[in-house]
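Issue 218. Parser rejects a valid record. Input:
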Amino acid sequence: MNQKTVSKALLNAALLVVVFIILFPVFYIVQTSLKSTADIYSGTFFFEAKTRNYEEIFTGSRSNFAELTRNSLVVSSAVAVICGVIGSLAAYSISRLNWSRWVTGGILVWLLFINMMPPIVFVTPYYLWARGAGIYDTPLAVIMAHMVLNMPLAVIMMMNFFAEVPKELEEAAVIDGCTLWQAFRMVIIPIVRPGLAAMAVLVFVFSWKEFLFALSLTTTSAGRTIPVGIANFVQEFNIRYGEMAAGSFVAMIPALILVLLAQRHIIKGLTVGAIKG
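Output the parser choked on:
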């Protein structure tokens, strides 16, 4: 075996180890979700698979997981759409329109400030605001918090994508009779659609898994999301390991499906500008 073959074999082995390290927690969660309570505590590797934990989280008298799933879908989808619309408009305005340097610089500094601050700093103001606005313990309160937290990512990502589009395309569209809004909607947006999809998926996933604000701005299942519901399986006198594992696996599915469906756009979006010439 020559040196090239050995190097390739070592690289493949290292990649297999990395894949195993990444996928083992998922395998362990799936395995635990199919075990009975006795099998979980005994730690046995060979067991009879049962769907009791999945039945319990969706149909059990103690569970409100279906409502939490609905709340998570509503919150994450709304945040992705709002950040997609507002983030695209804001990014286009900053990167294309002739604003004063002080205006664009101030907006970018403010966005970076929000993005760099620890999220826990904003918990008390959001809590007081939600109480005062009368939307505490509702999905709307969580949507507003997640929207502000994810907006800097949306704007900064879209600015990079708009920077890759030649200004001549807009100028040609305007010469052909389009307004600036029509040029943006019919010319620019189709070009940056891969980047828009990548941004929307990332925002959806970040909102889907967020725990701190979903916990702080809610007290009941009327506004809580899946991460908070999974944490509540840890109770005073016992931990419902099987239901926790089942809920964790179910929570992976929507984000995984979304990533798989938008995989082509995500790859294109995240590699825009990586290759020149």
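Fixed in the parser; the record now loads. The chain is about 75% helix and 0% strand.
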